[in-house]
C-alpha cells in the first residue's frame, strides 16, 4: 500500500489573508465548503489577529460560524494571543495555531514582538487552549531566509521550534515564508531540526516564490516529513513578508506526491474545482 502523506489545506487563511481584493464572507464560506468535500483532515480557515494588521481576516468568526462542518475535518484558526484564542473558542475552532519566527526582523514586522517576547505571549495561549482541550499547532516562519535579516541560521530555527514544542504544540510547521529556500538549504535546516524533534511531528510550509517549493517538499520527504501545508490554486502570500508569493498549490503537491508514489486521500476532481473557485475569487479565473 502506498505511504500516506497529509496535505494541510491553508488556502482560506494563508491564501486569502493576502489577497488585495475584498473577498465576500459568503465566497470564503463557499470555498471552505467545497474544500470540505476533498478529503482533508485539517483546513485552516480563520485568523484571529488585529483587523488593523490584516483586514482580510476580520470576518474570521463569521466564516467559522458559517461553514458546513464535515465529519472528521478539523477547522483551524491562527491565534497570536489570548484575545485571539478567546475569539477562536467562541467561534468553535477545532484547533488553533500560534506563529513565531526564527528571525528577529520578521518577528517584529509580523507580530510586533521580539522572539522572546512572542514566546512569553504564547505560553498562556498554550495553557488556556490545553485547559479547553484544544490542540495547538506551532508555526516557525523564515526557516531559511528572512526578508529583513537575510539568511537564517538553522540553530535559530531549532531554538524556536524546540521552544514551541516544549510549550506543548502538537506539530511544528516550518515556514519558508518568502520561498527563497533551495533543497540544499532546506535539507541543512531540517538536518538540524530533526536532531532535536521527531520528523513525524514536523510539517513543511513552502511558499512558491522561486518555483522551488515542490523540490523543497521532496527534500523534506527525504528527511522523513509527512505533512505539508498548501493552498488551493496557489493562493496567498504573507502581508508582512514583502515578496512572498502564494503558498505552493495544493493540486500541484497532490500531483507530485502521486507521481512519487504517495497517497493523500484527496479527490483530484474536487481539488480542481476548488482551485478554479480560488482563482476566480482573486480575479484571475
Ligand atoms: P500589537 O499592536 O503589538 O498588540 O499587535 P496590542 O496588544 O498592542 O494591540 C493592538 C491593537 O490590536 C488593539 O486595538 C488590540 O485590541 C488589537 P486598538 O486598541 O489599536 O483598537 N488586537 C486584536 N484585535 C483582534 N484580534 C486580536 C487582537 N490582538 C490585539 N487577537 C498583534 C500584536 C499580534 C495583535 C498584531 O501584530 C497582529 O495582529 N499581527 C498579525 C500579523 C499576521 O496575521 N500575519 C500573517 C499571519 S503569519 C503568516 O502568514 C506566516 C505563516 O503562514 C507561516 C509562514 O509562511 O512562514 C503562518
Ligand atoms: Mg505562510
From TrEMBL:
Cite the GO molecular-function annotations of the record: hydroxymethylglutaryl-CoA lyase activity; metal ion binding
Ranges where the Pyruvate carboxyltransferase domain occurs = 5-272
Return the InterPro entries for the record: Aldolase_TIM, HMGL, PYR_CT
EC no. given is: 4.1.3.4
Q: What class of enzyme is it?
A: lyase
Kindly give the SUPFAM superfamilies that the UniProt entry links to this protein: Aldolase
UniProtKB keywords: Lyase, Metal-binding
Q: Does the keyword Thylakoid apply?
A: no
Q: Name one GO biological process term.
A: ketone body biosynthetic process
Top-rank taxon, per record: Bacteria
Q: Which NCBIfam families match?
A: PRK05692.1
Stated family: Belongs to the HMG-CoA lyase family.
Output this protein's name.
hydroxymethylglutaryl-CoA lyase
Taxonomic lineage of the native organism: Bacteria, Pseudomonadati, Pseudomonadota, Alphaproteobacteria, Rhodobacterales
The gene is yngG_1
Amino acid at each position: 500500500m502506498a505511504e500516506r502523506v497529509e496535505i494541510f489545506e491553508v488556502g482560506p487563511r494563508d491564501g486569502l489573508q493576502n489577497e488585495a481584493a475584498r473577498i465576500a464572507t459568503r465566497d470564503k464560506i463557499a470555498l471552505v465548503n467545497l474544500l470540505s468535500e476533498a478529503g482533508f483532515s485539517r483546513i485552516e480557515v480563520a485568523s484571529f489577529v488585529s483587523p488593523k494588521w490584516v483586514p482580510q481576516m476580520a470576518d474570521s468568526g463569521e466564516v467559522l460560524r458559517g461553514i458546513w462542518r464535515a465529519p472528521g475535518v478539523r477547522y483551524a484558526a491562527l491565534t497570536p494571543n489570548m484575545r485571539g484564542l478567546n475569539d477562536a473558542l467562541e467561534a468553535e475552532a477545532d484547533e488553533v495555531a500560534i506563529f513565531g519566527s526564527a528571525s528577529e526582523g520578521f518577528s517584529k514586522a509580523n507580530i510586533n514582538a521580539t522572539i522572546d517576547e512572542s514566546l512569553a505571549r504564547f505560553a498562556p495561549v498554550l495553557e488556556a487552549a490545553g485547559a479547553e482541550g484544544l490542540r495547538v499547532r506551532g508555526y516557525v516562519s523564515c526557516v531559511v531566509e528572512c526578508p529583513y535579516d537575510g539568511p537564517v541560521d538553522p540553530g535559530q530555527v531549532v531554538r524556536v521550534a524546540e521552544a514551541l514544542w516544549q510549550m506543548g504544540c502538537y506539530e511544528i510547521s516550518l515556514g519558508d515564508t518568502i520561498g527563497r529556500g533551495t533543497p540544499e538549504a532546506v535539507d541543512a535546516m531540517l538536518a538540524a531540526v530533526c536532531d532535536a524533534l521527531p520528523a513525524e511531528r514536523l510539517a513543511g510550509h513552502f511558499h512558491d516564490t522561486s518555483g522551488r517549493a515542490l523540490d523543497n517538499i521532496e527534500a523534506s520527504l527525504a528527511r522523513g516529513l509527512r505533512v505539508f501545508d498548501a493552498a488551493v490554486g496557489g493562493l496567498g502570500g504573507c502581508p508582512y513578508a514583502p515578496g512572498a508569493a502564494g503558498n505552493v498549490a495544493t493540486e500541484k503537491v497532490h500531483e507530485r506526491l502521486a507521481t512519487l508514489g504517495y497517497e493523500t486521500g484527496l479527490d483530484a476532481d474536487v481539488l480542481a474545482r476548488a482551485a478554479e473557485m480560488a482563482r476566480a475569487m482573486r480575479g484571475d479565473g
